[in-house]
Amino acid sequence: FSQKVAGIIIGKTDVKSFPDRKNIGTDRFTFSFTIRDSPDFFINVTSWGNGGYINGLSNSFSIGDCVTIENSLVTNKDPEKGDRFCPTTPSHYRLLVTEAHSQVNLCADTDTVDRLLPMIHLPVKDSTDFYSLGDIEANGQRLDGSVINILAAVKSIGEPKQFTTSDGRKGQRLEVKLFDDSVSSFPLVCWDREVIQLVQTWIPKETVLFIADAKIGFDSFRSCMAATVNSKTIITVNPGKILHLYNRGSDTTIHLDSINDVYTVSQLKQKAWENPEAFFGITYSFISRLDLDSSVSKVIRTQCSRCKIQVSEDAQSCVNELCPGRDQALSTTTGFYLLVDFTDHTGTLHACTLRSPVAEKTLGCTILPSTKMRSGIRGVVMACSLADPGEVKQHMSALL
């Protein structure tokens, strides 16, 4: 048994169940995740147990969270069995978490969290080993069934589609359109709930992805190549070494007084589905969800002022090796990064991003400098001028 391991979650699968051979008529549940504790080392973790334990454990953390694992069992990899469906790691071992012996908790030590957070931006494969979208299209069906690395930017994000299989299992599907300097639109298909939750935090025309071990296939229905995220795939968001490559065209300036088109929520969904290009409009709706329950590092983010990559609060330099201010003193901005749902009489827009400086104006809140609290946990204090949550909703009622 290992004693205690701390790491940042860089990959995670959905919970799955299988018939228990020892107890006929019952199921065993499992899920896996990948943690990283240094630039060169990351390892897969698997947990087995009953439905209540496994679902509770899975719901307690997400990709991007920092966790501590106590008393996990260290076992050898078995490349012929379950490990061939897990991400490729540099370790010869994997960790096994059990209800009887192990504990997994969110990391409460802020110094450890600050050390781990920048590692979410480090690709798990050689950052020069990737296919451009043009390379994929040029190779065509010769790549059908291949597992490759891709570097591209997010062009648009579709709406999650729910479905039920013939044997009664519920599933979901979401399609992302990617682009780079060689191809204007390329589909990336996501099936896992965990990945779909991650996708909904991305920003079209701004987020860059390094996708390690994506499955490439030929979509016969649309007669085009497509990439799929599977259980082996690790997605690095805004990879520090190559962040600035594909953000062409994302700096469009729009004057607010020029936006006159009014949409219902259903009209916005329809227009986004039909037209992947960015558009602007006004919607009259109310906030049905305001995500303030996430960890502080997700609600409030500190970014390098020059290249916009996320950095820890105590960082002395930018982790992006190609940042234009890499050799200068680090200049940062700290602001809100909130996920909100907007609802009107026609439906709900899920996981909309409300970021600074609009968030401060909308909420009537500002972020004060970080302070050391008596508990020893570093906190970010918000000074709010709105005491009534109803007032917050009123201020946001016309915001998309």
Largest sheet: 8 strands, mixed
Query: Helical percent range?
Result: 10-25%
CATH topology of the largest domain: OB fold (Dihydrolipoamide Acetyltransferase, E2P)
- Please mark out the parts with pLDDT under 50 across 5 or more consecutive residues, or reply none: 241-251, 371-400
Going by CATH, the homologous superfamily of the largest domain would be Nucleic acid-binding proteins
Percentage of residues in DSSP E strands: 35-45%
The rounded distance between the terminal residues' Cα atoms is 50 Å
Q: Strand tally, please?
A: 23
CATH class of the largest domain, anyone? Mainly Beta
Structural features, described:
- By secondary structure, this protein is mostly beta strands.
- The chain is globular, with a radius of gyration of 22 Å.
- The chain has helices at 51-58, 110-116, 133-139, 193-199, 265-274, 296-299, 358-363, 389-396, and strands at 4-12, 16-19, 27-38, 41-49, 66-70, 73-76, 93-97, 103-106, 147-157, 161-164, 170-179, 186-190, 208-219, 224-228, 234-237, 286-290, 300-304, 332-344, 347-355, 365-367, 371-372, 378-379, 382-384.
- It folds into 3 domains: 4-120, Nucleic acid-binding proteins (OB fold (Dihydrolipoamide Acetyltransferase, E2P)), CATH 2.40.50.140; 133-245, OB fold (Dihydrolipoamide Acetyltransferase, E2P); 251-294 and 334-398, no CATH class.
- Belongs to the MEIOB family.
- InterPro entries: MEIOB, NA-bd_OB-fold, OB_MEIOB_N.
